[in-house]
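Sequence in, structure out. Go.
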Amino acid sequence: MQWSLVVPLKPLALAKSRLAAAAGGALRPHFALAFAQDTVAAALSCPAVRNVAVVTDDPLASAELAALGARIVPDTPAAGLNAALAHGAGAVRADRPGAAVAALNADLPALRAAELARVLAVASQFPRAFLADSAGIGTTFLSAAPGTELRPAFGGRSRNRHLRSGAAEIAVDGVDSVRHDVDTADDLRAALALGVGPRTAARCATLPMPRPVQEEGV
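Output:
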């Protein structure tokens, strides 16, 4: 099964407010963009992904992510995360009514294409499925098979909301990169330990924050 991914991205000036303490106000939008670029690049390299639609009104993000090969969908509803995801899924299915669609967070800078492929393979077994974040509270991924409405309920304690909505929870080991979204400095350190993409790595080189210590010989 080939998937169309929908990635929501708020205006960069408003993104990643909880990273302000680590990145500072001036650098924070650049980190948000780097996270999105590494996420989209990894997703597009996954053989199970047909295309990626990024829902955003940010002109810089639109240009940079389009250059990677993403389709840009203007955030016409401008009514928050879940409205943006529903709108993006609708835009995808306006072109391909039978598309299998999945929502993916834009802040997964350690994303690995092979791990995303494993998640998508499990998701293909269900009408709707989701993957909880690394804390087991939120959600980083939600899928809808052809003919099934996405019905996103992201934000806060979204794991429980997706469970109550009837979506199957994906239980598969070895997909940490799909679960580790980045909101705080601690999240960023965890992503660095997994190994982030090149754009995030370049941004982190400008930060005076502790890096994970690599063992000798590794």
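Check: The radius of gyration is 16 Å. Strands lie at 3-8, 49-55, 71-73, 100-104, 128-132, 139-144, 168-169.
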